[in-house]
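Morning!

This is the sequence you dropped in the shared folder:
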Amino acid sequence: MNSLNINGKEYPFRFSFIAIRKFSKLTGIALEDLGNMSSTHILEILYSGLYGGSRKAKLEWDLHIDDLELWLDDNFDKIESIMEMVSSDLSDDEGK
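The structure's back. Tokens below.
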């Protein structure tokens, strides 16, 4: 499982069903419309993937989307790697 260091703490990142469900709730984009997901949704993608990873790892969830917005503002260079993790997770799930 991938991970990201957010404000000095390592968080697992996994964009699978749990994250997709959270992303859909946050954005209103339905599962069948995930092809419409873009980097303009990066904050919701980040939040959902970290949430999904934490749930999968059975870790306590202690992040707020506002904290991630501030982190992303300072770590804008991480967007490409976040999108690569999403793509990797989604293609891994398709092969199962």
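Headline: The chain has a mean pLDDT of 89.

More detail when I'm at my desk.
O.
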